[in-house]
Amino acid sequence: MRVDLSDHEEPEIGLVAMIDCIFFLLMFFMLATTFKQQEDIKRQKELHVDLPKAEASVVRAAAAQDALVIGVDREGTLFVDAEPVTVQQLHALLNREAAANPQRRIRIDGDRSTPYQNIVHVLDLCQLDGLTNIAMHTRD
After folding, report:
1. Cα 55 to chain center, whole Å?
2. Are 107 and 82 in contact (CB under 8 A)?
3. Looking at the domain assignment, is residue 119 inside a domain?
4. Do residues 128 and 42 lie in contact, with contact meaning Cβ atoms separated by under 8 Å?
5. Number of independent structural domains in the chain
6. Could you say which DSSP state residue 5 is in?
7. In whole angstroms, how far apart are CA 86 and each of 33, 123, 131, 136?
8. In a domain, 2, yes or no
C-alpha cells in the first residue's frame, strides 16, 4: 500500500516523543548509578574478617557499643573502626585512649586465618599503653 503525500505535506519526526524517551533513559541511568555508588561505599566500609567460632561466649550489648574496635585481616593489616592504620598510628591512638581513660574497652576482631602473632602484637600494644580491658570478638 502506498501513501501519497502531496507537495505541501512533509514527513515530521515526533520530537516530543523522542525527548520524553531520552529524558526517561537519562533518569533511569542517573538513579541506577546512584544506587551502585551507595552499595560500593557501604562495601568499602565493611571489614572482611572471618571470625573464629567460640563454643561458649558471653554477649554484652553495652560493651560492644562503646568499645574501640581493632581489626586484623588475614594478611595482618590493622584496622581501627574499619579504617586501615599502621602500627605507629595504632600505637599513638592507643596511647591517647589510655591517657583519656585507662579502662577504655578494646575489642579485637581477628580473622581466623591470620597468624596468632598478629593478634599478640595488638595485645602487646594495648598492654604497653596500660589498656587491659580487652575482648576478642567471635562468631556465635
Report:
1. 28
2. no
3. yes
4. no
5. 1
6. P
7. 33, 15, 19, 20
8. no
